[in-house]
Amino acid sequence: MNIFNVNNKSGFTLMEMLVTVIIIGILVVAGVPYYKDHIERQKAALGISNLRTVVDSIDRYMALHNQNIPNLFSKLDINIQPSFLSEDGSKYNDGNFTFTINSTQGKLNAKRNTDQYTLIYSFSDDTLRCQSSDSNFCHDKLNM
User: Fold this and answer.
1) Spatial distance between the Cα atoms of 141 and 53, rounded to a whole number of angstroms
2) How far is residue 44 from each of residues 2, 13, 39, 100, measured CA to CA in Å?
3) Three-state SS string across 39-96, please?
4) Fewer beta carbons below 10 Å: N end or C end of the chain?
């Protein structure tokens, strides 16, 4: 004779399943903004790396051509796929940023394709800064 529960049913109850789904939902809601910020920081780091590569190439160009900043990417000694260049060669798009050489101001701009911010490198004082319509975006999201 079995003195224990006669109906030995195994499995999860509806309440256990609901609690599990709610906990997973809370974790997802808490994690998605952090994940998006992390992805944006990684894209910004890649943009800065590409910007530094272009800056180095421009520095080499300036050393060979009497300190004149080129206005076209096609004049640089870096290998850029033609499909990434604008028709006139004045802009370079890597998929995340659009790079523009401003030879009159001595700056290289890297504008994020989502229009969130622009990375600006100045040749005169060798500085990189971030400009955004949201005053805290560059500091809070990109740590710049």
Assistant:
1) 23
2) 67, 47, 9, 16
3) HHHHHHHHHHHHHHHHHHHHHHHHHHCCCCCCCCHHHCCCCCCHHHECCCCCEEECCC
4) N
Full-model pTM: 0.77
pLDDT tens-digit map of 26-57: 999 999 989 998 999 999 999 999 999 999 99
Both structure tokens of 13? 């109850």
Handedness of CA 109, 110, 113, 114 (dihedral sign): negative
Query: If you write DSSP's letter for every residue of 111-144 in order, what string do you get?
Result: EETTSSEEEEEETTTTEEEEEESSTTHHHHHH--
In one-letter notation, the amino acid at residue 84 is: F
